[in-house]
Amino acid sequence: MLELSDYKVFSYSENAILIQWPELISAQLHQHIISVSELVENIQPWFIEQVCSYNSLLVYYRFEAISAHDFKAKLISAIEQAILNADEKPLIASQAKQITIDVCYDVATGWDIETICQQKQCTLEDIIDWHTSRTYRAYALGFTPGFCYLASLDKRLQLPRKTIPRKKVPAGAVAIAHHQTAIYPDSSPGGWHIIGQTPNVMYAMAKNQFKPLINVGDIVSFNPISREAFIAQGGNIARER
Amino acid sequence: MASMSIIELNSLALIQDFGRFRHQHQGISVNGAADEFAFLKANHCLGNHVFTTRNDKSNEQNASLEVFYGQIKLAFDDSCYIAITGADCQPYVTSKNKSHSDIPMWQPYLVEAGDSIVLNRPSTGVISYVAVKGGIRSPQFLGSRAQSVVANQQMPVLSPLVKGQELPFSRSSDDLPETILDLTKYTPAGFYASDVLYLRFMPHQHWFDAPNHQQEDWLNTTFIVDSNSNRMAYQFEKELTTGHAFSKLSQTLSSAVNFGTIQILPSGLPLVLMKDRQTMGGYPTLGNVFQIDLFRLAQLTPGQKVKFIPAEIEQAQSQLNAFYQRFMPQ
């Protein structure tokens, strides 16, 4: 049984306080953090913004208008309120979306497929099976715009980050590292292992709006597609140079 | 709209304001002026509003040019007041009749239509700001005009400036405000460090958990700014190869990070996150550097020295408050 009252609240910087729970990946804990964040948002007029992760919530506040001590007290009462509400809350928030990402998994799109097959003594079909046979929870959003940390990966597929990160991972790369999987929304440097590519666009931009496809708390699954379907959906296979 | 054009650029130049807030939960970096002291001084002496009447940071009039290591030439198609602050780049103006004259820094200067200005490579410091009365009016994205050294093809407005670009500003008939607050007590010489920069930090749990001898070792170590340092992060080496780096800290789950967060790399060396940092980090953190000291750090060149020193949150907050209050309307 998860002990929700096991948390620490401390000043992280002048303008932010960190709430930290035990180091674990748990949908129940994460749902609790989301519940806390919904209450924290209402600590007005001092609340500015917050960033949630697996086991933490960093809350930015107007430190010029309230002392760290008093803001901490308000955070603690929000957390305690969320603990009281916990029994009535389902594990997946009502506003959580179910999102399916189409992935073309093969040796051309999955730059690290061959290495993984060697390391894990498995086949491409095993990798596809392990990666697509479960759903993932979006635990955090960060690194680059719209980049979502999804967990937890099948133990048989887990491996540490690459020792030397690539200078360029292509946009749409579907990658894995440790317990996590993710989609690179844009091309960027990256140290995760690439197992495929998606034609799906990970965020939309309009004038003064940014809408990521996946938000924290959403549930994501992966759907294997053929290379033909990938191209038909507008995908461009990025090959390693 | 009036504009200044970039005729020559042999360095890095970006548009900066206070940065992009309230989108970090979407993975959007804050960005913003790296040295807020020089940035605010430039805008303040022009009478640009940098805070709202409620004393909130305002990006309405403050967008300025942030130039790394000078080496830029700008041509103005209209007259305006500008102010150049930060690293001493010995700026000068060339007018239509080809006459040259030096531009005094840290004060308003009237540029005429047809003038071009040049910033030289500064002998000390890194960043110079060019502010214009009313601010640069480039397109905003999510409430900010700030640009980033982290390239993103889908957000070209965030990319650093290139030669040939024209930066619009509004032609302002206003004269400068007659009384600009007397800030003589807050001089550049008084603000920037002379020799070793002391980075005061608010410790995190890993610091408190470290044994005494390790804390002492850390505080006695002089670190040297590494040449990989940039707007994303400042990196360091130890001055002496003796002494211990910070011992291996347990790898943590990725968590949000802030401006000034001290991450400990697997090598035991520190990395201090700056304005173009990513919103999330996986390295263990030792603490968070005072923002005021980060404005100073942003002006250090590779090879310069820093030391870390733990301090209280109350001190950090009251100093940052006092810092901003000097630039607020009275």
From TrEMBL, chain A:
Keyword Transport carried by entry: no
Keywords, ordered alphabetically? ATP-binding, Hydrolase, Nucleotide-binding
* Xref: InterPro entries: CT_C_D, Cyclophilin-like_dom_sf, PxpB
Q: Does the keyword Nucleotide-binding apply?
A: yes
Stretches assigned to the Carboxyltransferase domain: 7-213
- Listed SUPFAM superfamilies: Cyclophilin-like (SSF50891), PH0987 N-terminal domain-like (SSF160467)
> What molecular function terms (GO) are annotated for this protein?
hydrolase activity
Q: Which Gene3D superfamilies match?
A: 3.30.1360.40, Cyclophilin-like
Which NCBIfam families does the annotation name? 5-oxoprolinase subunit PxpB (TIGR00370)
Name of the molecule in the record: Allophanate hydrolase
Organism annotation? Thalassotalea eurytherma
From TrEMBL, chain B:
Query: Which ranges of the sequence are coiled-coil?
Result: none
The organism's superkingdom is given as Bacteria
Query: Where does the Carboxyltransferase domain lie?
Result: 25-327
Alphabetically, the GO molecular function entries are: hydrolase activity
Going by the UniProt record, its keywords in alphabetical order are:
ATP-binding, Hydrolase, Nucleotide-binding
Query: Which PANTHER family does this chain map to?
Result: 5-OXOPROLINASE SUBUNIT C
The entry's protein name is Allophanate hydrolase
Lineage per the UniProt record: Bacteria, Pseudomonadati, Pseudomonadota, Gammaproteobacteria, Alteromonadales
Gene (name only): ybgK
